[in-house]
From TrEMBL:
It comes from the Eukaryota. This is tyrosinase. Residues 681-726 are annotated as: Disordered. One of its GO terms (molecular function) is metal ion binding. GO terms for biological process: melanin biosynthetic process. PANTHER family: SHKT DOMAIN-CONTAINING PROTEIN, TYROSINASE FAMILY MEMBER. The keyword Oxidoreductase applies. PROSITE patterns: TYROSINASE_1 (PS00497), TYROSINASE_2 (PS00498). Belongs to the tyrosinase family. Its EC number is 1.14.18.1. Keywords: Copper, Melanin biosynthesis, Metal-binding, Monooxygenase, Oxidoreductase. It catalyses: L-tyrosine + O2 = L-dopaquinone + H2O; 2 L-dopa + O2 = 2 L-dopaquinone + 2 H2O.
Amino acid sequence: MGEIDNPTKTYAIRGIPLPPDVVTKTKTIPYAPGTPSRLDISKFFPPENDFLGRQWTLLVLALERFKAMKVDERLSYFQVAGIHAYPLQSWDGAPPPHPDPTRHVPDGADPYGGYCNHNTVAFPTWHRPYMLLFEQLIWEHMKVIIKEWKLEGTQLADWEKAAEQWRLPYWDWARKQTYSDKYSLPYVLTVDRVAIYPPNGDTLVVDNPFWGFENPQKHDDGKPRKFNDMPKTPVDMTKWNINNTSSNPVSKLLPESRTWGECSGVSRYGIFTDDNGKTYRGLEGVNNFSEANVIFGNFEDHWYNPYSSKKVPDRKERFKFNPPGTLADAVNRLFSPQYSDTWGTFASTKWFAESAQDISTGYMSLEYIHNNVHNLCGGSQANKAGLGHMSDVPVAAFDPVFWLHHCNIDRLLSMWQSLNWNSWWNIPEPPNDNDNVPDVKPDAPLQPFHTSETTTPDQGFYTSNDARDWTKLRYSYDDLVPKPEAVEPNGTLNEARYKTDLAAHIRTLYPSTIEYYQKLYEDRAIENKEFFGPNNTEAMSWNDYIINVIYDRYALNGTSYVIEFWLGGADNDPNSTFSFKENFIGQVYSFGGLVPASEENPSGCANCGSQKAKKVLSRAQVPLTIPIISQALDGKYEHLNTTRGRDVVPYLEKHLHWRFVQTGGEVKPASDFPNTTISVWRGTGKPQEGTSRDGQPLPPVYAQYKPQYSPTEHKEGGLSESDELLGRAHAPEFNFRGF
């Protein structure tokens, strides 16, 4: 498909050209009015108007055309997806990722292990030019399609404008989908055929390109080849084989490999084994969207809703009072003032031991939430719900949902930047290089993404500084469009007003713990002073409970695993807790899959290898408050009936349990994860003072957290009173945030 490629030079990633009337009005926060916005995918399918219908039609046809390109073409879907990791080949002439700067690589060894950028502070910025590349290539295909139609006059102008104004859509997984009234996959991922509206006036029903992806290289009978069986003739494409990870056994259920090379298409909850990994089903690519939606729903449906009784028979009224979903609550907290307010705590799961006595809420990060969504989309249990590509780093980008998901990650990044523009690499990492892997700097190259065409492909890469301002990359987001009242007469932003409006908008988008509390405060059937405590009732505040987790992403040599958290059951009886799915309250997903590089395996993931060797740990957070409220209200949980600390902490001691589940579905002993530290914290949440200019409330604020030892003291992996950093004896050294 040579129309869009000049293989003699690097491919310049610049974004889609802007309309001629766009003028930059940035003071501090990026602002260029008229810049086309990235929209939620639900606005395109089904399209809300004719203009969106044209954009949707172009998107469907362009993505299908893109996916059909041969695997040996530089700008093919296969190679662009492969930048993320497999098949572990250099892209666009870029050198392989740098080996660990703290480790000698033997002469002749290949340090290459994929352009892996996870568990680093450059996680969100590395993915920004990656999304821009994908967006630009879709647009390039749109132009070719319009040219092939041979349109004229106003019809040509309409379609060219549709392409010019189009930007990559996102999927906001932290908002309920309108077609289901639930947290779920977007509607476009649940149908294998879709309607499009080409310029001849006919409505056509075609294959849905978001349904999946299969190997574009076919056998003579037209069936797709396995990803580890690329053709040798007439052109040798075997360098693009996706080989199984036989050097990294996964579990008893998947003893030899993750089988990605045996697949001919991508799956969502579609790969199963019934005989401990001897054979598999679903390798041709299966979209089990209904199972994915069940899993997503688990993070909302299990919470007790006191308003779903006959007291409120109208379904729409009941819907208003549904407890917030876990993802919505997590995102809301991410935007709460000072919750994760440094670049490092917001951007990455990377853990610094030196910060242990200073941060309490900063275990919540954009990357951690992102990791969980990958697992929710793909599935990681071949013996139960099913296994899918989105759950494994090496192959996640081959699933079309990857691009919708990561576009949303970039959207959340842009929103956070708008509120925290000066928090850019603002806290340097602790000076402890002997025990840590140095952080990526904002001027470090983000390989393999080139900013311009060049004949020297080892130069001219994006940096995080280059990617900081999204308007310079020629796109914006619908959520970032200011209200007219926030624009000054000279066309610039009233930035204080703009930030307040955006914060209020975020509170509206993502219902959180505060919505649950406020509805309960209004319920006369609940004795507030007894349920919340007299001090909280007077202050309209609440006890807030969180689980902070320090974990080793490489505990299983890079293989992904889940730490599942469960609450309920009989006293001190984990088996009874694990017996009822309603007791499942949250998870931490390690999101691995690449074998770390080592002296014995120098061809592994270099970034992963250096982190493993240096014992770089990761952090995560599971909010506990909503499940605690739910269980205190639900008569089925007879051991808890208030949210007061005197009742909750002993309840957690007897009823909070966790387990480690490896990719494939095997439960592993906690002793396999010796670097894990799980702690329970109790703090205070309360409404933020003030409102937006038009009276809308702002996200709540949280502070005054202290570790609670008894819920974790005598459990494997749990924080103890004698901990060398957070033990009771070190309390005078704690510097946790207050109000």
